[in-house]
Amino acid sequence: MSLFERIYGPWNEQVLHNLDANGLRHRTKTSSGLWLGSLVGLSALLTYLKEDKSYSEICLVTGITGFSLFISSLCLVFQLRKEKVVAKDYHLLYFLPAIISAISFLHIGTKGLFTSAFWGIFIASMGTWGVIQLMSYLPGCFTLGEATAVMHGIILFLMSTFQNLPLRYHLRPIHSNDIVTVILQVLTLSVIAICILCAKYPIFRKTQSFYFLTFAMMVFITRPALNELLDQNPVYWVISFVLSSKSKILLVTYWTACLLFAFISINCQILKGDKATTSIRKIFHILAVMVYVPGLILEPTLLYLASGVILSLFLMIELFRIYKIPPIGHFLQQGFTSFADEKDSIVSLTPLYLLCGLSWPLWLPADNMHILILMSGVMTIGIGDSAASFVGSRWGKHRYINSSKSFEGTYACAISQYIFIVALALCGYVNTGPLLVRIICSTVLVSILEAYTEQVDNLALPFVNYLCLSM
């Protein structure tokens, strides 16, 4: 038994035991995903460290926040492995990342004392205690690692928003990428506010109240805020941006066709009344590849805008489904029943994880990122995971011990990613030279991880691949 297994195994068992003893329902019985929780913070920190001296303020805040989240994930694990711990309490150890974060913002980020202290406490509290509250509020939806990754992603979004929007009030964005960032931040904040209000106040779950809330939020808060921050009409800007070039128009038309195909596929599966198999669900992974590859190559800013809008749309769709809001609530529930897998519970997290896994590199505040790093999610969950599922389910004969995964699926996962990278190189879209060793190592590691991990592939694989290619 390796040193890692001797240390990780008992910690994993103790954490799972403590979570169960505190009444926190875990998604799996054997794997807490301790390692997954630290990847969001590490990704954000590495993004900042890899940027040159021209980094933006938002990149600096992201890097400091990422470091603080990494420390928070370690403190959370150390606290939860203690015997007879009261998991839902706020523990003294959680002040450590708060202090480190506050000092970092004060000296590296050159923020004021009050701002540094407030941000430090916010990041540490939500990055530790907030993870437990998330698991308590949505029982059975997460492993500890998944809940940590989700909460840390939310914190990164909020911190970048806190940094960016006040700045844009005084300094209007000029470049398209900066304008898109402001639009997505305000839109996502508005949708999150709607979600919180619906969850907290049952009156907003009623049909008329829900539509009134949504209309009021978008018309009286979101649009005026964007008008003020951008000094122009956001709707007109988006329309003019999409129509500004033939490639954008063709790309949006092509994406619309892909979306229509996805809708028809879902409708056909609902009409059949059967539970979708894993192979059928992987069709949406292939569709995602068809959407993201041309978008990343031709119009990454347009894809950035589209991915953020789709995220907000997914969140609104979940509200319609969970609260059965007409006219589409019943149809959405039928689709959920047909396509939900064992990883879905109260909330349909699989499509959200897929979108976030594919879009994560796009959402990070980095300039001139290598195209293969931008495609971290596409390579792993779009190409590799789909190939592993397809080959493993049809020709997999040699199974891993105590697993349904096969060696044939692992080979397919690795080989398909290599073929994809070679195809991009032959077409002249990528230069693999600087990343060759990292490509080989990351592909092998991701393929093995896909076979062994019980964590959600759509989260774990893109983060690991991003870290390997970025180092």
Explain this structure:
The chain is mainly α. The protein contains 20 helices and no strands. It has helices spanning 3-21, 39-50, 57-80, 95-107, 113-127, 129-137, 144-170, 176-200, 207-230, 234-242, 246-272, 278-298, 300-322, 329-339, 349-363, 371-374, 376-395, 407-426, 436-452, 457-470. The longest helix is centred in the middle third of the chain and has 27 residues, at 144-170. The chain starts with a helix and ends with a helix. The chain crosses the membrane at residues 32-49, 55-78, 90-108, 114-132, 137-159, 179-198, 210-229, 249-268, 280-297, 344-363, 369-391, 411-431.
List the keywords:
471 residues, mainly alpha
Distance between the termini: 28 Å
Give the integer mean of the pLDDT values. 91
Oligomer designation: single chain
- How would you sum up the global shape? globular
The string of secondary-structure elements, in order, is HHHHHHHHHHHHHHHHHHHH
- The fraction of residues in strands falls at under 5%
Profile the largest sheet: none
Q: Which structural category fits the helices and strands?
A: mainly alpha
The low-pLDDT segments are none
Continuous helix count: 20
Helix content: over 70%
Keywords: Endoplasmic reticulum, Kinase, Membrane, Transferase, Transmembrane, Transmembrane helix
Enzyme class: transferase
Transmembrane segments: 32-49, 55-78, 90-108, 114-132, 137-159, 179-198, 210-229, 249-268, 280-297, 344-363, 369-391, 411-431
Main location: endoplasmic reticulum
